[in-house]
Design goal:
single chain; disordered N terminus; 6-stranded parallel sheet; 364 residues; alpha/beta
Length: 364
């Protein structure tokens, strides 16, 4: 208390000009000003202690007031300044984050293509120069798609076998941020279904359950004969293709065995046809990522969404029915402040990282 009472006196003394003999003098205050230098000495002993009980009670009251004021100030919540990152974030990202933060979407359908696996080191199919179909010259194929052609495989399985040995899931490639985002949606209980056109299995490796995942073009986990359809052990198929670099032979008919990925000339898995219509009737939010939407029948999935179901596209370019003559599809029922689909151009992983920064992710 002594130090606190001394401060007003020190302040006045420090501001007073020195006298001719070197001592400090104080000016007489105006009538309407408080003279702190007079008040301080009169109320204190030389050691700064209060002179009587009344003064002590008054000082205690002041301290209580200061304590209460400090508590009040500490309880005041001041909103943080918006970061440059927040101010510059794309509007589509903020709109999708708002949809997720609204906590009213609990039946989200995801549709993905090869674009979400590019950052894992797996090329997509059609990008000029870097796409898979542009880099198959070493196999001397009659046409690029022949590597996935059923009739071609029956006569010459070597190109696919060598390609599969390089791309087999879980050996050289790991899930990306986007794969992990899909797993997060399931963990939060808001993923209805994950439809993927990819055969790399990275969704499953990221933690998305097989129950929630429909691999539209098949997978590497199981295998069968291309001639008699007899099932073949998946692990054994992997060992022969990856290590021996040859096509396994069917133990029943001697035909070539391949992983159960869908080749041109084969139908899509039964699970796809069984689930699709019901899922799209129930979906309350559709998120499409990393696909050109050029392969039928999967490219028709966005058109099956209800008119009141928001449709979101994370992609390097507009695709499918998201693309209209004047840009974004505007012929859909309003579901937020706009009648447009939501499109965020660019790398899927970068878009998902930005989205997660704005999405609170809190659910009751």
């Amino acid at each position: 208390m002594a130090k606190a009472e001394d401060k007003p006196q020190d302040k006045v003394a420090a501001s007073s000009p020195p006298s001719d003999d070197g001592s400090n003098t104080t000016e007489k205050p105006r009538d309407n000003e408080a003279n702190e230098s007079d008040i301080g000495p009169d109320l204190q002993h030389e050691d700064g202690a209060p002179t009587n009980d009344t003064d002590a009670a008054s000082t205690h009251s002041i301290n209580d007031d200061l304590t209460d004021l400090t508590k009040d100030l500490e309880s005041v919540s001041i909103a943080p300044r918006l970061s440059v990152e927040t101010l510059l974030a794309p509007t589509p990202i903020k709109r999708v984050a708002a949809l997720l933060s609204a906590q009213k979407y609990s039946k989200i359908v995801i549709l993905t293509g090869a674009g979400i696996s590019c950052n894992a080191g797996i090329p997509d199919f059609r990008t000029p120069g870097s796409g898979l179909y542009d880099n198959l010259q070493k196999y001397h194929l009659p046409f690029p798609e022949a590597v996935f052609d059923l009739n071609f495989y029956k006569s010459n399985p070597a190109p696919f076998v060598h390609l599969a040995s390089e791309l087999w899931p879980g050996i050289k490639h790991s899930p990306t941020t986007t794969h992990s985002f899909i797993a997060l949606l399931e963990k939060k209980g808001i993923l209805l279904r994950n439809y993927t056109q990819n055969i790399d299995g990275l969704d499953i490796l990221a933690g998305v359950s097989e129950e929630k995942t429909i691999e539209c073009h098949g997978n590497f986990r199981t295998a069968s004969c291309v001639s008699c359809k007899h099932a073949y052990d998946g692990d054994e198929c992997k060992r022969i293709i990856v290590e021996d670099k040859r096509a396994p032979s069917c133990k029943k008919c001697g035909g070539h065995v391949k992983p159960d990925i869908v080749f041109f000339g084969e139908g899509l898995p039964a699970k796809f046809h069984k689930s699709l219509k019901r899922d799209m009737q129930n979906a309350d939010l559709l998120i499409v990522m990393g696909t050109s939407l050029m392969v039928s029948p999967v490219n028709m999935i966005p058109d099956m969404a209800r008119r009141d179901c928001p449709r979101v596209l994370f992609n390097r370019e507009l695709a499918g029915s998201f693309l209209k003559r004047n840009g974004i599809n505007t012929r859909r029922k309003s579901y937020d402040t706009s009648e447009k689909d939501i499109f965020q151009e660019g790398d899927c992983d970068e878009s998902i990282r930005m989205l997660c920064k704005f999405w609170t992710g809190k659910r009751s």
